[in-house]
Amino acid sequence: MKWTHLIIHHTGTEEKDARQVREYHRRLGWRDIGYHYVIERDGRVVPGRPPSMRGAHCLAGGMNHKALGVAVIGNLEARPPRPEQLAALQELAARLMAEYRIPVAQVLGHREVPGAATACPGRFLDLGRLRAVLARPEILYLVQVGAFRERDRAEQLASELREQGFDSWIAVR
Ligand SMILES: [Zn+2]
User: Which structural domains are found in the chain, ordered by start?
Assistant: First the structure.
């Protein structure tokens, strides 16, 4: 499969876990759970159907053949995603974008696919903000090591850090 899009869903009901979603989809007569990944309530990412299998999550736009499907468990029309779920979604989406070279403009909520008549993934999932986070070229982790009243002491620490091979700079606040 050539995956060019990533479609974000919510499950729309408060299932207990991915297994329950999978059992439900199998009862519908599907070969497997419709999504490729499910994000559980605690932020755990559970593999759904393998990425080698076409999706069963978004008929509109022929997306089942073009898009990996990720579902967040819960009704995000009624409540916001849990912080753990949002963090997991950002991380997973960033990983899939890198792995399959999916541009951020092709990371869509189900409802954003032309022809899809659905509220999925719910009004509490901010897709614009998700894309803004994913569009950042990189994440930077800053370490602050000290605050001094005397400039000399700040210079001293900064030069010691540089000697040890760390970039360091002095800021004023
Ligand atoms: Zn959906």
Answer: 5-135 (3.40.80.10), 142-173 (no CATH)
